[in-house]
Amino acid sequence: MKKGIKTLRYEGPHTLALRVAKLASRPFGTPEISSCCYKDLTAPVVAPDARVRIDIARLSDGDVARLAPVIIEANRMARGPAGRMDLESAEKHVRKRLEAGAVCFVASYEDELIHYNWIFPGMPWQISRLLSFVPATSTEALLDDAFTLEKWRGNGIHGAVHARMLQFLQRSGYTRSYTNVDIGNRSSRKALNQLGYTCFSTVILFEARWSGRKRMVRIGRPLTQFRVGS
């Protein structure tokens, strides 16, 4: 009850209603409710500092093996037993994305790799089911699939890395970025808000327990309302 009152007070009735619906639907399947957001890259991006000293860099070929254990942990946390991977599978997953043109940024603390995030420039939005309805252009990029090791969360790492990725996109000539965030991930939503993102739609992706089939419902204004000249 207290948690519901807090959500209503700080995040509004819309978010509260979606969270209640998410909890109520769990016996029937797996719901995923996310906000879809965009950011114009025509203005300078100010990169906030993380609350721990980290090194942020674009993933190099030599660091793929270091990233693999973090990929395994991310899959375990997201999918449970169904997300099990071995080191070889995790490395193949990373290399496949890199070969297709994706860009990965990572954060390290001393010798430990603790965070990753991906850029999918000019690639099909099917990479993200939640943004598959966005009609992308060649100067727009999707930022998706970020993960921070649990013990390092709450240190502003996601926001610091994300900002560096936006600066990279600006230098590369991109004019807009998209991302999505789970409605329950308050820290990531706060980070995106600080970076100047605008959330334009809520997407509900539901996987029925008895069939495994997925259905998607979008709530919000059409993207054309946010595009200049459309």
Give a verbal description of the structure.
The chain is α+β, with helices and mostly antiparallel strands and 230 residues long. The chain contains five helices and eight strands. It has helices at 2-25, 64-79, 87-99, 157-171, 186-194, and strands at 29-40, 55-58, 103-109, 112-121, 140-148, 176-182, 198-208, 214-220. It has an eight-stranded mixed sheet with strand order 2-3-4-5-6-1-7-8, sandwiched between helices. Strand 7 (198-208) and strand 8 (214-220) form a beta hairpin. The termini are far apart. The mean pLDDT is 82.
Quick structural overview:
The protein is an alpha+beta fold and 230 residues long.
Provide the spatial order of strands within the biggest beta sheet.
2-3-4-5-6-1-7-8
Strands, total number: 8
State the separation between the terminal residues, measured CA to CA.
44 Å
**Tally of contiguous helical segments:** 5
Helix/strand order: HEEHHEEEHEHEE
Low-confidence stretches: none
Helix content: 25-40%
> What gyration radius follows from the Cα positions, in whole Å?
18 Å
Shape: globular
**Overall pLDDT confidence:** 82
- The share of residues in extended strands comes to 25-35%
Instruction: Assign the structural class, choosing from mainly alpha, mainly beta, alpha/beta, alpha+beta, or little secondary structure.
Output: alpha+beta
Sketch the major β-sheet: 8 strands, mixed
